[in-house]
């Protein structure tokens, strides 16, 4: 399994090499070389920010087409809670769930139902391990991936509980197998996702060995297809929903905390805010905190790049919908298929940003990076294709760039080369001695260099 799988791709033809994206990547995972952006796999946490900020729509999320429904004998849709937030004036979740059945799914199981189970077990876990608080939510795969590569000291703080989508997939599979008698491979568990990071999670999950999610489709693909199928005539609706306010609220920032029924919590959203919170937690600057709910997308999952509605409008729509819901409808005691809700695997630190193989080597390389960074103008202009002067210095130390990638260094280099050539030319009295066998080679060399320099805008010396 590829540990650094990512679901954000580059459309090379669309990329203009404008370097916009390199400035917005929170992990400095993008470089622009030869006029095209390039994502460094191991640095990317699938946050989707580059998708949002590319003015040429060259960064694209990868996910499955809805035709995957046809790949299985029996399919179960797992709608994310953020799907409901896309629709206007929704008062009954069953309107969306029944439309999914009309679209072609054989059954549905809400991720929000599993979220209520996660809320229940999280409450128990936090209470039983109060001395190890503060805990960090492990529901957003981008946050878990960020902690895995940048904040090793915070890994033990991650709540070791499977995310709601995984628990939903396990329950859905068990129920479908029992109901149909079909073998597991003929049942398709299909997640309707708000973001690309959950596409990567399904392929390479953290905390467990293998996910029960077979395919991941995008909310933005499903949304328009459901619209004509959404009958609001309550008498025609099968009662399919198994979640209430606690579960549906998980689609928005602060929703997970709503289910924990605890004080001393923090909810942060947007990857830049998350980085600040994690830095503060790493430096132990936040006191008395029990739990941190962190969502990489602004507004929570409703702000994912695979949704259609503005995150803040979607939040308002969720609030309206929640008014009509009971507090909670799913409980561990009445969901025997839930099985083990805890992680089976540890999340290991991946030191992808470390420069050397050993601490000593890293320290030495770091001092080279500092010295190199001093040579650059400190403008962080991005013209070299790296987001900052320090990142360019790190790339040079890793052997992935040269000082001449900096246009300021290159200009100085050319200028001093030009002066040297001029000096050499004068000293051998170029026009007079080029016929001389002994100086012919040197003359040719000087002329070649002079021609090359002219390509950088340095005028040829008058003959
Ligand atoms: S923002 Fe990045 S991906 Fe988009 S066109 Fe510019 S360089 Fe290419
Ligand atoms: S998805 Fe996020 S981490 Fe990955 S390259 Fe884009 S901005 Fe960077």
Automatic annotation (TrEMBL):
Signal peptide: none annotated. Keywords: 4Fe-4S, Iron, Iron-sulfur, Metal-binding. It comes from the Bacteria. PROSITE patterns: 4FE4S, 4FE4S_FER_1, 4FE4S_FER_2. Residues 364-423 form the 4Fe-4S domain. Gene3D superfamilies: 3.30.70.20, Electron transport complex subunit B, putative Fe-S cluster (1.10.15.40), Fe-only Hydrogenase (Larger Subunit), Chain L, domain 3 (3.40.950.10). Residues 6-35, 36-64 form the 4Fe-4S ferredoxin-type domain. This is 4Fe-4S dicluster domain-containing protein. InterPro entries: 4Fe-4S_dom, 4Fe4S_Fe-S-bd, 4Fe4S_Fe_S_CS, 4Fe4S_Ferredoxin_RnfB, Fe_hydrogenase, Fe_hydrogenase_lsu_C. The keyword Iron applies. PANTHER family: ION-TRANSLOCATING OXIDOREDUCTASE COMPLEX SUBUNIT B (PTHR43560). The lineage of its organism: Bacteria, Bacillati, Bacillota, Clostridia, Lachnospirales. It holds the Pfam family FeS. The keyword Amino-acid biosynthesis does not apply.
């Amino acid at each position: 399994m590829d540990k650094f799988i990512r679901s954000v791709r580059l459309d090379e033809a669309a990329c203009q090499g404008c370097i916009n994206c390199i400035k917005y990547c929170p992990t400095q995972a993008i470089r622009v070389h030869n006029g095209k952006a390039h994502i460094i796999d191991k640095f990317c946490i699938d946050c989707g920010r580059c998708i949002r900020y590319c003015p040429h729509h060259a960064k694209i999320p990868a996910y499955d087409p809805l035709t995957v429904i046809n790949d299985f004998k029996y399919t179960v849709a797992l709608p994310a809670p953020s799907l409901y937030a896309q629709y206007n004036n929704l008062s009954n979740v069953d309107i969306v769930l029944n439309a999914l059945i009309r679209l072609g799914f054989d059954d549905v199981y809400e991720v929000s139902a599993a979220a209520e189970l996660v809320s229940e077990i999280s409450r128990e876990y936090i209470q039983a391990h109060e001395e190890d608080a503060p805990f960090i939510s492990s529901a957003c795969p981008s946050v878990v991936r960020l902690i895995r590569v940048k904040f090793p000291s915070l890994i033990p703080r991650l709540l070791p509980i499977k995310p709601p989508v995984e628990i939903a997939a396990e329950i859905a599979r068990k129920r479908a197998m029992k109901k149909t008698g079909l073998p597991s491979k003929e049942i398709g568990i299909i997640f309707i996702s708000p973001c690309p990071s959950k596409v990567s999670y399904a392929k390479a999950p953290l905390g467990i060995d293998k996910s029960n999610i077979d395919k991941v489709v995008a909310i933005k693909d499903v949304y328009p297809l459901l619209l004509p199928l959404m009958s609001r005539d309550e008498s025609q609706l099968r009662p399919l929903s198994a979640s209430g306010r606690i579960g549906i609220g998980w689609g928005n920032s602060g929703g997970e905390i709503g289910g924990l029924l605890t004080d001393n919590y923090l909810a942060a959203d947007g990857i830049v805010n998350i980085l600040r919170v994690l830095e503060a937690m790493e430096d132990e600057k936040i006191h008395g905190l029990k739990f941190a709910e962190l969502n990489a997308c602004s507004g929570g999952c409703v702000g994912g790049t695979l949704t259609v509605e503005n995150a803040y409008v979607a939040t308002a729509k969720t609030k309206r919908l929640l008014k009509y819901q009971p507090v909670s409808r799913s409980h561990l005691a009445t969901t025997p298929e839930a099985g083990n809700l805890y992680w089976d695997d540890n999340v290991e630190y991946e030191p992808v940003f470390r420069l050397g193989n050993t601490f000593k080597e890293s320290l030495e390389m770091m001092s080279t990076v500092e010295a190199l960074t001093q040579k650059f103008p400190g403008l962080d202009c991005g013209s070299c294709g790296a987001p900052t002067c320090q990142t360019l210095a790190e790339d040079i130390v890793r052997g992935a760039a040269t000082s001449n990638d900096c246009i300021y260094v290159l200009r100085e280099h050319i200028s001093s080369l030009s002066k040297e050539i001029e000096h050499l030319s004068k000293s051998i009295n170029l026009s007079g001695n080029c016929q001389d066998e002994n100086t012919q080679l040197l003359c040719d060399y000087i002329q070649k260099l002079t021609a090359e320099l002219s390509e950088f805008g340095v005028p040829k010396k008058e003959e």
